[in-house]
């Protein structure tokens, strides 16, 4: 491939190629692009839009004729008269801040440390990425045997040092969110590390060498040369962090015992499933919560799309 | 990129410490190894603890506590977990979901990425945005209408005994493909932009139809990207349990990740047994990861604005 890449004027986009496509070519492209496009519109975008519609209704989820239009009632209720809502928002914000301030920078740091010719780099990568390979169910059980108040590792170690402590890590509403965040950060750092490693390989090493020649130390090189040059990757990392924080569900669900939201661990995603999956389902209510989550997500998605595709549109 | 990183003060001492042009000597590598090694060990610690727990019989830990030296070690928990929870059956369910979903996602995403990156159609950017943004939507936003939709779509009896997309493995496969295509399209289109257009143009001049360009030229060139994406997608799809929780009614159709609950007794839970079961469910993704590891980083192309 390298020999081809050196061919002169590799950016010849001049002739419009679509004109030369025969009918067979057009049929092939229509089919292979049409199928995923239809699936996407039908299974992803249509439900997303339908959720917006349902959020203005009152529905028990049983028969379609029971759907009643209630306007903004659900939203009004949620903001004024739904006790778990504001705690859930606070927890989502705490989740985002924690993830953005600790595991994400740590993952970037690890990627930068591993992106050089040192021995065992693959061993380190594998070890730190390992939590991502495991399923969240597995992760949930692993942390359960660490956090368990009676038999868990953590309390075992603590009581070996000083007796009389019995901490219910996952039950105490003041503690459990942080206990879950440690488990989530454990996974997140590895994910960010892998993404950033992938991004770093697109970085021109000559820039780093130039900075080193100019006498910049490792930290300066990273902060002033590598980081600015990797802006597209930084945006992806940022979006992944925001989206993972907003969508956080599985790990809380598993560590909360699989029964929906628990005091101290309410999150928007859990409130949604509380309302739509439970025995008495309030579809309209759950959908309104989903739309609130959607609007916040769209802000993040919008920033990402704007930054990523602005160039290509020109 | 134009930012020069050098504070003027440090420039003066450079020639003293290093000859310009000489390769930078790796210094303090031991310190770095100690740091990375301890981080790696810390990261593996919860997993090692689970392994240690799973190797000990329940009676041993009940008598001596979990934080103790083992009095006997064995694989009894693993074989118990394997037989008690009906694991082979659920493993098979996971295979039936994951393999078609990963292959379908990669094939369709490659087609869309090929379309977007190799041709200059007017709607390309819109198409790419639609796919990428679709993958970023929270699953909880989709679930209620999707559930109703699945109840409305009939399937022939040879595809599902529920006669509906609801409560069938096909439904899970479809939503995985539709949802995951976005991420793969994004990564693959970035990757394909690095393929020189001359290659496919040469094929076009030779009179090769587009499908042959796609299958015989572009796809083989994307092999590293496929390896990376196959790893990630296998991990995500195999490990997912949200869709199957909401869209599958019958317990014995669920994938392995949701079957772990079968190990939790109604009155009594044996953590050692659960640890063993949990560790076994992780084996397939670990195998995929190790098999494709070599190309994992090199094939992942994100955020390169090389186009």
Task: Compile the SSE list and pairings.
The complex is a heterodimer of chains A (about 325) and B (about 300).
Chain A (H helix, E strand, L loop, with lengths): L1 H4 L17 H32 L2 E2 L9 E2 L3 H9 L3 H17 L1 H12 L6 H13 L2 H12 L5 H9 L14 H25 L4 H9 L4 H12 L1 H17 L2 H6 L12 H10 L5 H31 L1
Helix pairs in contact in A: 2-15, 4-9, 4-12, 5-9, 6-9, 9-12, 10-11, 12-15, 14-15
Chain B lengths: L7 H4 L2 H4 L11 H27 L2 H7 L11 H9 L2 H32 L5 H13 L2 H14 L16 H24 L4 H9 L4 H12 L1 H17 L2 H6 L8 H4 L11 H11 L1 H17 L8
Helix pairs in contact in B: 3-15, 5-15, 6-7, 6-9, 6-12, 7-9, 9-12, 10-11, 12-16
Question: How would you describe what is shown here?
Answer:
The complex is a heterodimer of chains A (314) and B (307). Chain A is an all-alpha fold. Chain A has helices spanning 2-5, 23-54, 73-81, 85-101, 103-114, 121-133, 136-147, 153-161, 176-200, 205-213, 218-229, 231-247, 250-255, 268-277, 283-313, and strands spanning 57-58, 68-69. The longest helix of chain A is centred in the N-terminal third of the chain and has 32 residues, at 23-54. By secondary structure, chain B is mostly helical. In chain B, 68% of the residues lie in helices and 0% in strands. Chain B has 16 helices and no strands. Chain B has helices at 8-11, 14-17, 29-55, 58-64, 76-84, 87-118, 124-136, 139-152, 169-192, 197-205, 210-221, 223-239, 242-247, 256-259, 271-281, 283-299. Chain B is globular, with a radius of gyration of 26 Å. The two termini of chain B are 17 Å apart. Mean pLDDT of chain B is 81; it is low at 1-22. The chains are: A mainly alpha (314), B mainly alpha (307).
- Look up the CATH topology of chain A: MetI-like fold
Radius of gyration of chain A, rounded?
25 Å
Report the CATH superfamily of the domain at 95-250 in chain B. Answer: MetI-like
- What is the helix content of chain A? 55-70%
What structural class do helix, strand and pairing data of chain B support?
mainly alpha
At the first level of CATH, what is the class of chain A? Mainly Alpha
Unreliable stretches of chain A (pLDDT < 50, length at least 5) are 1-18
Number of separate strands of chain B: 0
Number of helices of chain A: 15
Helix and strand sequence of chain A: HHEEHHHHHHHHHHHHH
Provide the CATH topology of the domain at 95-250 in chain B: MetI-like fold
């Amino acid at each position: 491939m390298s020999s081809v890449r050196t061919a002169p004027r590799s950016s010849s986009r001049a002739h419009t190629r679509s004109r030369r496509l025969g009918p067979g070519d057009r049929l092939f492209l229509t089919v292979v692009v049409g199928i995923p496009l239809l699936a996407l519109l039908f299974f992803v975008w249509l439900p997303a839009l339908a959720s917006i519609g349902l959020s203005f209704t009152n529905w028990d989820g049983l028969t379609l004729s029971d759907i009643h239009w209630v306007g903004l009632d659900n939203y009004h209720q949620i903001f004024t008269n739904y006790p778990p809502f504001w705690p859930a928002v606070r927890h989502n914000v705490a989740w985002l801040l924690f993830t953005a301030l600790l595991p994400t920078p740590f993952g970037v740091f690890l990627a930068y440390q591993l992106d050089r010719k040192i021995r065992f780099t693959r061993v380190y990568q594998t070890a730190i990425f390992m939590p991502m390979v495991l399923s969240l169910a597995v992760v949930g059980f692993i942390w359960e045997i660490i956090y368990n108040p009676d038999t868990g590792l953590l309390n075992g170690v603590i009581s070996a040092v000083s007796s009389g402590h019995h901490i219910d890590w996952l039950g105490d509403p003041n503690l459990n969110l942080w206990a879950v965040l440690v488990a989530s950060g454990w996974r997140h750092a590895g994910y960010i590390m892998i993404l950033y490693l992938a991004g770093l390989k697109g970085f021109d090493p000559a820039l780093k060498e130039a900075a080193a020649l100019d006498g910049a130390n490792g930290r300066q090189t990273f902060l002033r040369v590598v980081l600015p040059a990797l802006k597209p990757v930084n945006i992806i990392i940022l979006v992944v962090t925001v989206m993972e924080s907003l969508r956080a569900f599985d790990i809380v669900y598993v560590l909360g015992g699989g029964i929906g939201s628990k005091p101290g661990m309410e999150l928007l995603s859990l409130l949604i499933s509380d309302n739509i999956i439970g025995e008495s389902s309030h579809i309209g209510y759950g959908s309104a919560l989903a739309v609130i989550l959607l609007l916040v997500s769209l802000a993040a998605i919008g920033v990402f799309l704007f930054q990523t595709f602005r160039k290509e549109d020109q | 990129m134009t930012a020069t990183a050098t504070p003027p003060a440090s420039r003066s001492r450079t020639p003293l410490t290093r000859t310009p042009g000489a390769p930078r000597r790796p210094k303090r590598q031991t310190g770095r190894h100690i740091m990375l090694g301890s981080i790696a060990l810390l990261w593996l610690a919860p997993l090692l603890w689970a392994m240690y727990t799973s190797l000990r019989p329940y009676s041993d830990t009940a008598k001596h506590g979990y934080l103790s030296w083992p009095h006997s070690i064995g694989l009894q928990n693993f074989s118990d977990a394997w037989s008690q929870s009906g694991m082979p059956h659920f493993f098979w369910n996971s295979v039936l979901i994951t393999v078609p979903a990963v292959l379908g996602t990669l094939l369709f995403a490659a087609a869309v990425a090929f379309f977007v990156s190799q041709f200059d159609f007017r709607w390309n950017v819109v198409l790419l945005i639609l796919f990428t943004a679709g993958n970023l939507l929270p699953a909880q936003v989709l679930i209620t209408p999707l559930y109703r939709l699945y109840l409305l779509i009939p399937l022939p009896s040879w595809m599902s005994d529920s006669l509906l997309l609801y409560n069938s493995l096909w439904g899970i496969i479809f939503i995985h493909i539709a949802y995951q295509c976005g991420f793969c399209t994004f990564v693959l289109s970035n990757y394909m932009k690095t393929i020189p257009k001359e290659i496919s143009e040469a094929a076009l001049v030779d009179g090769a139809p587009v499908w042959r360009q796609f299958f015989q030229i572009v796809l083989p060139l994307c092999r590293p990207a496929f390896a990376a994406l196959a790893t990630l997608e296998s991990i995500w799809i195999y490990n997912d349990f949200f869709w199957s929780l909401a869209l599958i009614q019958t317990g014995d159709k669920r994938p392995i990740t949701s079957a772990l609950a079968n190990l939790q007794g109604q009155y009594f839970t044996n953590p050692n047994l659960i640890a063993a079961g949990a560790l076994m469910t992780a084996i397939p993704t670990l195998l995929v990861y190790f098999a494709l590891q070599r190309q994992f980083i090199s094939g992942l192309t994100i955020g390169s604005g090389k186009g």
